[in-house]
Amino acid sequence: MIELAQDGGIWTVTLNRPDKANALTEDMLVELCEIMERAGDARAVILTGRGKIFSAGADLDAARAGLATSDLWERLSGAIAQLPGLTIAALNGTLAGGAMGMALACDMRIAVPGAKFFYPVMKLGFLPQPSDPARMAALTGPARAKLILMGGQKILSDEALSIGLIDRIVDPESLIETARALCADTVAADPEIARAIKRMCTGRA
């Protein structure tokens, strides 16, 4: 249910469970963690999904069994955030719940028109994963992060773009092509220069 394609220094990781809105099971989360933890040599990583929803978050049965509060979510977002290459979340549709963390950890987020973004963790009686609120607030500002996390608001792609939650809205037909184009300069550059620029942008120089 997780697909990995490697081409020209670009790793494309695809959630492939469209019949279940790409909801994540424990096995899927473990596989995602393992892929990201060995992606250090990738020049760029694109994270996307099959179908019209990027991910509904945790699989409901798995969430009830404890996955909603698993440390796997933080392990995954941490592994993405530590990657030296360029990371892009190519969001093929709605992004919800704990799955938000992996997109927030990416360097860029592009999304199709009409995608929705929401994180109803407080309503469900859980805390968000530890790094998610700070990453969201760094993109949107603290008040808008609270709008999503505490106000329970569903943000459409147009508003998500205007508040900085995503960086570009892209037609579905060209989503992956656009993501690959955004990777092109990084893939062609001297790896050490590309990595140094990323460190400078993230304050880790």
Question: Can you walk me through this structure?
Answer:
The longest helix is centred in the C-terminal third of the chain and has 14 residues. This protein has nine helices and ten strands. α1 runs parallel beside α3 and α5 packs across α6. The protein has a single domain, classed as Alpha-Beta Complex (2-enoyl-CoA Hydratase, Chain A, domain 1). The mean pLDDT is 94. The chain is an alpha/beta fold and 205 residues long. The radius of gyration is 16 Å and the shape is globular. The chain has a six-stranded mixed beta sheet with strand order 1-2-3-5-7-10, sandwiched between helices.
Summarize the structure.
The protein has helices spanning 26-37, 60-64, 72-81, 100-104, 132-140, 142-149, 157-163, 175-188, 191-202, and strands at residues 2-7, 10-15, 44-49, 53-55, 86-91, 94-96, 108-111, 116-118, 155-156, 168-169.
Topology:
Elements: E1 2-7, E2 10-15, H1 26-37, E3 44-49, E4 53-55, H2 60-64, H3 72-81, E5 86-91, E6 94-96, H4 100-104, E7 108-111, E8 116-118, H5 132-140, H6 142-149, E9 155-156, H7 157-163, E10 168-169, H8 175-188, H9 191-202
Parallel strand pairs: 2-3, 3-5, 4-6, 5-7, 6-8, 7-10
Antiparallel strand pairs: 1-2, 8-9
Helix pairs in contact: 1-3, 5-6
